[in-house]
Amino acid sequence: MRVGIVGSGSWGTALAIVLADNAHQVEIWARRSEQADEINRNHTNEEYLPGIQLPDTIKASSKLEQVVEGKEMILFVVPSHSIRQVARQVSGYIPQEALIIHAIKGLELETHKRISEILLEELPVPLHERIAVLSGPSHAEEVSKRSPTTVVVASNSIKTAEEAQDALINQHFRVYTNPDVVGLEIGGALKNIIALGAGISDGLQFGDNAKAALMTRGLAEISRLGVYMGANPLTFSGLAGVGDLIVTCTSKHSRNWRAGNMLGQGHSLQEVLSVMGMVVEGVKTTKASYELSFQCGIEMPITQQLYQVLFENKEPRKAVEDLMGRLKTHEMEEVAHN
Ligand SMILES: NC(=O)C1=CN([C@@H]2O[C@H](COP(=O)(O)OP(=O)(O)OC[C@H]3O[C@@H](n4cnc5c(N)ncnc54)[C@H](OP(=O)(O)O)[C@@H]3O)[C@@H](O)[C@H]2O)C=CC1
Ligand SMILES: O=C(CO)COP(=O)(O)O
C-alpha cells in the first residue's frame, strides 16, 4: 500500500519501520525540512530514535498535503495538542477510500475530546467508517529494534480494524483487533497520568508496594471514567489497559515516567518539560481528566492529587499522605454498592 505517516517523532518513525518491513511504500511528514532531509539522505532520525538505521525505502517530506495525497493508508502520529489543526489542514487532500489510523495517546485539552472524536469532526463523512485507533504497550525505542511487541487496533467498523491489522502485523509486531474505540483511547491516554505518578513515587523512593498500589488503583479510576464514557470494562484488562499501564509505569523509556521521576526528585514542572525534548502527554491529559472527573461526577483521587502537584505546586509527599488518608472504602466500590 502507499502509506503517509503524519508525524516524524519517535512513534511515527518506529511505525514507519514496521510498515516498510511489511513492504508498504512509506512517506513520512516531518514539519522541519532539515529532519526530512536527514531521513532521505542518511536514513536516520537521530533526535527521536538515536542509533537506529531506517529502511532505505522510507521517504520523508516537509509538505504535509503531499504526504497524504494519493495514499491508501494514513497514520496520524502527532502530539494530541496538534491533531485538530493538522487534520483540518489535510482533510481535503485525503483520498475517499483511504484507511485512517491514529496512534495518539491524549485528550484535547480545551474540549476533553478523544482523538477519534476530533477526526470525526475534521475529516469528511465518507472517511468516518475508515477511522481506527492503534494502542497498547509499545515503546518506539523497542519497536524500532524489532523487539517483540503486541498492540491493538479498534474501529467502529470491524472491516476497517481488520484492514489495519493486516497492514501492520508481522513477526515482531503482533496486532489484535477490538471493537472498543472508547476503551482504547481512554486506556491509552489516562495511563500516562498514572505513569507520571509512578515516576514521582520512584523519585521519592517509595518502593514497589507504592508503585503497585498506584498502578492498581490507577487502573480502577481509569476504568471508572472509561465505563462511564461507554467503554467495555474488559478492555482495561487487555493490552490497551493494564498492558500499557505496566509498560509505561515500569520502563526507563517512558517519557511520562521519567518526567514524574524528576518531579519526585524535586524539579519543577517547567524544568522537567524543558529538558525532556519529547512530548509528555500525561501533563495535559491530567488537566483534561481532572476537569472531566468533575464534569462527569466520577471519583478519580490519583488524577486529582496529580493535578494539584502539577498545577497547584502541591508537595508530592503531601499528595501521597492525602491519598493514604482518604476515607476508608471497599476495594470494589461499584460492585459492593450494587
Ligand atoms: N514514543 C512512543 O513510544 C509512543 C508514543 N505514542 C504517542 O504518539 C504520539 C506522538 O508521540 P511521539 O512520536 O512519541 O512524540 P515525539 O516527542 O517523539 O515527537 C513529536 C513529533 O511531533 C512534532 N510536533 C511537535 N509539536 C507539533 C505541532 N504543534 N504540530 C505538528 N507537529 C508537532 C515534532 O516535530 P519537531 O521535531 O519539529 O518539534 C515531532 O516530530 C503521542 O500521542 C504519544 O503518546 C504512542 C505509543 C508509543
Ligand atoms: O505509550 C507509550 C508506550 O506504550 C509511550 O509512553 P511515553 O509517552 O510515556 O513514553
TrEMBL record:
The residues that the entry says bind NADPH are: S10, W11, R31, R32, Y48, K105, A140, R255, V279, E281
Q: Does the keyword NADP apply?
A: yes
**GO molecular-function annotation terms?**
glycerol-3-phosphate dehydrogenase [NAD(P)+] activity
Give a yes or no for keyword Mitochondrion in this entry: no
Enumerate the catalysed reactions: sn-glycerol 3-phosphate + NADP(+) = dihydroxyacetone phosphate + NADPH + H(+); sn-glycerol 3-phosphate + NAD(+) = dihydroxyacetone phosphate + NADH + H(+)
Q: Where, by residue number, is the active site? A: K191 (proton acceptor)
State the family it belongs to.
Answer: Belongs to the NAD-dependent glycerol-3-phosphate dehydrogenase family.
Q: Specify the protein name.
A: Glycerol-3-phosphate dehydrogenase [NAD(P)+]
The source organism is: Ammoniphilus resinae
